[in-house]
Write a structure and sequence with these properties.
2 domains, alpha/beta, Rossmann fold, Metallo-beta-lactamase, Chain A, 452 residues, 7-stranded mixed β-sheet, 14 helices
Length: 452
């Protein structure tokens, strides 16, 4: 056949679980293989068999290292995949870190729920043996396709995947960055795509301007410190953590906020920060110049990395005010939950939400105005102040997504909106049709379509 078949096996109807299959008549390739995350019912889907035979897959291309894009790779290997995996070098390093960390968390959860873990550390080892890397804009040739990674500006090493087939171009955006970003270069422009498979996480709303988010951060820190509270910031280990360290470093070095104790209380975030240092060449020019001047952008005198559990517990003994940056970003696990249990009932303290909160996560419940929550079986009243800064999101917002499509509107035949809640994706689809006259659709899970 001259046409391609595109199947949507994850990342539809939900923000997580990215998994797309693109088939020619002699090649089957996956784009991403991520975990479903959010609530218990959603996460049960991770145990389901894949809707295709993993042993028949030739290549797996990875957009970036977030768990909802890589988390089922070891399961894919366990169930028979023996093809090649491709990503950028930074994505490979981060992915291994995240998969091994996730393995540890899943073991604890499986023991708690009296279940088996659905893959092993050996499956991660096998996956890494199959994994190769390619730099941005370097050609990868397969039997049917020519493939390139382009910088998506989302997190370190993140990429759009451009696929060329018989004179046509199909682009999987992965997650697009919130450019201009504090650390990374801007998302590259795509102006000649025939088909776009594009994320839509923030398809219905816009972020604050970057200057506004910094002003808001300063205000929240000063207000919390003035009354002697604790500022808790649940963070994702990759990108959000490093951006916050960079911002705090600037604010403290310039004397805008005082030297108060700051704790990075996440072993994975600490290890991820070391990987960021390894790939400083991927930072934008402004940050490269700052590093060249001798500034360690991820460190400052009052910052303490707490790797060990004993160090994390010792944070309780440090007098207020203080800032605690800890995972997980949606408060659905990790060390932040212990701090929330201790300080959410304190009216002097503040919980600052700086990232997307999936439906039914603890973070989403707090964001939506819950007056009390259950943590480790105990009812915790929420008296702390709850603040939101959307501008630190690593995702493009609604206007950015429309602008991204605008660059290729003259050529694009269809845009498939994925990685979004259904209502949000449909809002964006309507915008693209009304403002750009572009055919945008919101596929359902399991849907298959032919690309002409």
């Amino acid at each position: 056949m001259n046409n391609l078949k595109l199947s949507f096996y994850g990342g539809t109807g939900v923000v997580t679980g990215a998994n797309f299959l693109l088939e020619s008549n002699n090649e089957k390739n996956l784009i991403d293989c991520g975990l479903f995350q959010g609530n218990r019912i959603t996460e049960r889907k991770n145990r389901d068999p894949f809707p295709y035979n993993p042993s028949f897959i030739d290549f797996l291309f990875i957009t970036h290292a977030h768990l909802d894009h890589i988390g089922r790779i070891p399961k894919l290997v366990k169930e028979g995949f023996r093809g090649r995996i491709y990503s950028t070098p930074a994505t490979k390093d981060l992915a291994e870190l995240i998969m091994r960390d996730s393995m540890g968390i899943m073991k604890k959860e499986a023991k708690w729920n009296n279940e088996d873990v659905f893959y092993s550390a050996e499956d991660i080892d096998k996956a890494m043996e199959l994994w190769e890397t390619a730099s941005y804009n370097k050609d990868i040739d397969t039997k049917s396709f020519k493939i390139k990674f382009k910088n998506s500006g989302h997190i370190l090493g993140s990429a759009m995947i451009e696929i060329y087939y018989k004179g046509k171009k199909i682009v999987f955006t992965g997650d697009l960055g919130n450019s201009p970003a504090p650390l990374l270069s801007d998302s590259e422009i795509v102006d000649d795509a025939d088909y776009l498979i594009m994320e839509s996480v923030y398809g219905d709303r816009n972020h604050e301007h970057f200057q506004e988010r910094t002003e808001k951060l300063k205000r929240i820190i000063k207000e919390t410190m003035k009354i002697g509270g604790v500022l808790m910031i649940p963070v994702f280990s990759i990108e959000r953590t490093q951006v916050l360290l960079y911002e705090l470093n600037n604010l403290i070095e310039k004397g805008i906020i005082s030297n108060i104790p700051v704790f990075l209380d996440s072993p994975m975030a600490i290890k991820a920060t070391m990987i960021y240092k390894k790939y400083e060449k991927l930072f934008n020019q402004n940050v490269k110049d700052i590093i060249k001047s001798g500034d360690d952008i991820f460190n400052f005198p009052c910052l303490k990395f707490t790797l060990e559990t004993s160090e994390s517990k010792a944070i309780n003994d440090v007098e207020n005010p203080k800032i605690i940056i800890a995972g997980s970003g949606m408060s659905n696990g990790g060390r932040i939950v212990h701090h929330e249990k201790r300080y959410l009932s304190d009216p002097k303290s503040t919980l600052l939400i700086v990232g997307y909160q999936s439906i039914n996560t603890l973070g989403r419940k707090i964001q939506d105005g819950a007056t009390n929550v259950k943590i480790f079986g105990e009812n915790v009243p929420i008296r702390a102040k709850i603040e939101n800064i959307r501008g630190y999101s690593a995702h493009a917002d609604s206007d950015d997504l429309v602008d991204f499509v605008k660059n290729t509107k003259k050529k694009v035949k269809k845009v498939f909106l994925t990685m979004g809640e259904p209502r949000v994706s449909n809002v964006l689809a309507n915008r693209l049709y009304k403002e750009l006259n572009v055919d945008a659709v919101v596929p359902q899970e399991g849907e298959q379509t032919e690309l002409q």
